[in-house]
Amino acid sequence: MRSKLPGDQASIFAEMTALAVKHDALNLSQGFPGFSPDPVLIDLVNQAMLDGHNQYAPPAGNLRLREKISELVANLRGKIYDPEHEINITVGASEALYVAITAFVHPGDEVILLKPAFDSYEPTVKLQGATPVTVQLEAPYLKIDWNAVANAITSKTRMIIINNPHNPSGMVFKDSDLKQLEELVRNTDILLLSDEVYEHMVFDGRIHQSAASFPGIAERALITASFGKTFHTTGWKMGYCLAPKELMREFRKVHQNLVFSVHHPTQIALAEYLEEPRHYSGLSDFYQQKRDTFLNALTQSRFTYIPAEGAYFQIMDYSAITDEPAVDFARRLTREHKLASIPVSVFNVDQRDDHLLRFCFAKAEKDLLEAAEILNSI
Ligand code: PMP
Ligand code: GLN
């Protein structure tokens, strides 16, 4: 059998969560909330099922939900996406990413990625017979070297993928980052894939700079978003994609053949739930508090860190403790200290090891305090 992804391993998220379960460890590895979603939202989904919304939704998604998304984006980003032609509901941001890459990237094309990078981008590029071109950021990955990105561009560059706020580093792009990117792609036919699943989680007064807000980027961008992240429902796999009409036309050809349409009752519920902006507008404060609860409890730890700027991940440097590779140390922490994390090296070029672990702080306060106590003791 000829593998299409020779050398690719099983997902680190699945591995570390399974290891956490096996060793009965606190699981701050895979990024998912350790608390329940709003019961109001759960009731809305139940009600939608009772009301009979149990058959296929339109392939683009329930129209009212697309209208609500359009309003949200217009209010927050200052750009109007036409619900009819420029918004598509997807099976999580994961499907949106897969479809966006598949619809536009051809064999022989090059796609630029900033590393460390979320694990699905690179294999999806390879599955198209295209080449991922990686630009490694310097630890702790809070600054982008746009000259290095410029140097990676060739006549074969079809797409640049960005992720803002950034997983795993927690970096939030600055206005100047987007402006430099806008300059880079001016007068080219390079497309942008902007993965913005943590858009509502930015801290210390920062503002999320969406690709939608920069005209020279938005005209060529596919933007991915996740209701799983925003509404603490990662298991529902609900997301969406925004793109200009001519790009969305191609996106829909792939989406239609991949899944046709997405879980219908949840779409009805989300449309209703989005009527109330406070359901997402308080998220930055909510997660900043969790970050601070976790970090303030690290009173005597030898782990060092710069507080995350956004998303729900905190990177920690353990080089004062051991020089073990991050993968080994993360496994040992899980086995011996009952605390699971993600070794950041797996997201880097050639698994470059900067001795960093990623901890997800989307957890109940008691778990964050317990995790901090464990880290203090190491
Ligand atoms: N992009 C990033 C950066 C993520 O962290 C995640 C979380 N899994 C996704 C995309 C996928 O989102 P979803 O769970 O909505 O498919
Ligand atoms: N996005 C989540 C993380 O970074 C997990 C996604 C997954 O399990 N595929 O941890």
Explained architecture:
By secondary structure, this protein is an alpha/beta fold. It has 2 domains: about 10-30 and about 280-375, Alpha-Beta Complex (Aspartate Aminotransferase, domain 1), CATH 3.90.1150.10; about 40-275, Type I PLP-dependent aspartate aminotransferase-like (Major domain) (Aspartate Aminotransferase, domain 2), CATH 3.40.640. About 40% of the residues lie in helices and about 15% in strands. A 7-stranded mixed beta sheet has the order 2-8-7-6-5-3-4, with helices on both faces. A 3-stranded antiparallel beta sheet has the order 9-12-11. The chain is globular. Bound molecules: 4'-deoxy-4'-aminopyridoxal-5'-phosphate and glutamine (GLN). 4'-deoxy-4'-aminopyridoxal-5'-phosphate binds next to helix 4.
Structure keywords:
single chain, 378 residues, alpha/beta, Aspartate Aminotransferase, domain 1, Aspartate Aminotransferase, domain 2, 7-stranded mixed sheet, globular, binds 4'-deoxy-4'-aminopyridoxal-5'-phosphate
Total number of strands: 12
Strand arrangement within the widest β-sheet reads: 2-8-7-6-5-3-4
Instruction: Name the CATH homologous superfamily of the largest domain.
Output: Type I PLP-dependent aspartate aminotransferase-like (Major domain)
Taking the alpha carbons of the first and last residues, their distance comes to 45 Å
- Count the domains: 2
- In percent terms, what proportion of residues is strand? 5-15%
Stated plainly, the CATH topology of the largest domain is called: Aspartate Aminotransferase, domain 2
Helix content: 25-40%
SSE-based structural type: alpha/beta
CATH class of the largest domain: Alpha Beta
Bound molecules: 4'-deoxy-4'-aminopyridoxal-5'-phosphate, glutamine
Overall radius of gyration: 20 Å
Count of alpha/pi helices: 15
